[in-house]
Amino acid sequence: MSLEKPSQPTEIGVTEDGLDYDALADLLGGHVIDRETHVNAEGFVVRPDEVQDVLSTLKTEAGFDHCACVTAQEYDDRYESIYHLRKFDDPTQELSIVVPSPKDDPHNQSGARVYDTADWHEREAYDLVGIEYDDHPDLRRILLPETWQGHPLSQDYNQSQPQIVTLRENANPLQGDQRSEDDPDTMFVNIGPHHPATHGVLHVKTVLDGEQIADIEPDIGYLHRCEEQMCQSGTYRHQIMPYPDRWDYVSAGILNEWAYARAAEDLADIEVPEYAQVIRTMSAELCRIAAHMLALGTFALDVFGDFTAIFQYAFRDREVVQNILEDLTGQRLMFNYLRLGGVAWDLPEPREEFFEKTRDFLDELPYKLEEYHDLITGNEIFQMRCVDTGVLSPEMVKSYGATGPVARGSGVDYDLRRDDPYGYYDELDWNVVTETGCDNFSRVLVRMREVEESARIIEQCVDLLEQWPEEDREIQANVPRTLRPDPDREIYRAVEAAKGELGIYIRSDGTDKPARFKIRSPCFSNLQTLPEMSQGEYIPDMIASLGSLDIVLGEVDR
């Protein structure tokens, strides 16, 4: 197998057996006032006014260069922010920084000065929970209008109060200290909110200096659907699983379901049968191919407007995948196929026809990919629009917590299927795809090459399933009808979705429903990089960069 990463220098607090939390606590010294045990990692409790010192020390001296997620929540006696830290070189090395703040004045230092990705995460925490983040570069609402009254995830939120949203004139973000009298006049341009060119309802506030982009700000929240609140209102066993399909609603349903299943199964100590793991792995990679086909077709449509050939070619092949998934799950988009402890049912009968249909698709795929390279990557217009545009350095990738093809297109060798193994991936032969161009072209190449690797994985799964003894085809573990994990168990688990790291944080309170359910969307963090990619470029370059991120606003907003 080709899943080994090159060895990295040992950081402070790392031994041959993994993380040495005692050594990390010694490194932080008096900053640590308490310690908690979470299912996935140790939690260090720190003071609200020492967050930046703690995060900076862990990043520079202990190698925690990935702030995967920031979770905010309210208890009866306090508010709490949790910074979920990992390492790009080894995401199994995890640490949670827990920051309690008083009930009457919820605030703590911002982590955005250390990790750029914390910027949007903290804005969301302020918007929905109500925690203030001192020294934040731009603390304001992100999903709700600035005029919104209250914080919807706080305990005292009044759902019946009227909300008045005023129409205000857009201000030029370059006025004042960012603009001098010697600079040429700037022009403010609204790109959106509209759907076709923005992969959902997105508003990009753009400031032009001549023909070049001087400043842009993605304005999100138009599709906010309260998914976390709905999951907190549902039972672990039956009522949450239908929701993940609707986060990235275009083609990544089973990948989304697996993120929830992995977190809930580890929280409740559920072991999934090996046979069901193989089925999960096969179906997840079919979803990945469908997602990448959609990304390829829509990106070509964005870049040179080819609907009749490339867009329909991509949808033609995506439909074949959707047909296979429909045979397996009974649905074309909202699959609801995974169950805690396994899958809903076995492969369709007759099994031989299902295997033959899948193999026919895999056999034809190399020739179809050659067509795509002829039509797309070999196209001069496409190359002019994509090569050396939307450049995102590996350092910026890590600082913003970008993952998936966006990170791997900048040479960041990070894939949770290999680096934090789950399912059946560590038993199969496949490669993690990276490109070093750091531009829009490289991100397209990564997705096209990943389709080939997904096909390798699916073929091996089909071989295994064909030979699996009938008496050992166990599709579900013996899971209690009602799940009630122990009170105050906390976990953060993630899977490698088509667009990157899709993580779930769950805190249990001893009931059959989560006390806190937090979704770490890869699109949310990836979209933060758009200003970095677009600075000094032209509007057409920005459109290409936005398309190369392959975002879905239903997952950004949740």
TrEMBL record:
Its main location: membrane. Residues 308-558 form the NADH-quinone oxidoreductase subunit D domain. It catalyses: a quinone + NADH + 5 H(+)(in) = a quinol + NAD(+) + 4 H(+)(out). It is found in: Cell membrane. InterPro entries: NADH_Q_OxRdtase_suD, NADH_quin_OxRdtase_su_C/D-like, NADH_UbQ_OxRdtase_30kDa_su, NADH_UbQ_OxRdtase_CS, NDH1_su_D/H, NiFe-Hase_large. Residues 45-161 form the NADH:ubiquinone oxidoreductase 30kDa subunit domain. Keywords: Cell membrane, Membrane, Multifunctional enzyme, NAD, Transport. It is a peripheral membrane protein. It comes from the Archaea. It holds the Pfam family Complex1_30kDa. NCBIfam families: PRK06075.1 (NF004739). In the C-terminal section; belongs to the complex I 49 kDa subunit family. NDH-1 is composed of 13 different subunits. Subunits NuoB, CD, E, F, and G constitute the peripheral sector of the complex. This is NADH-quinone oxidoreductase subunit D.
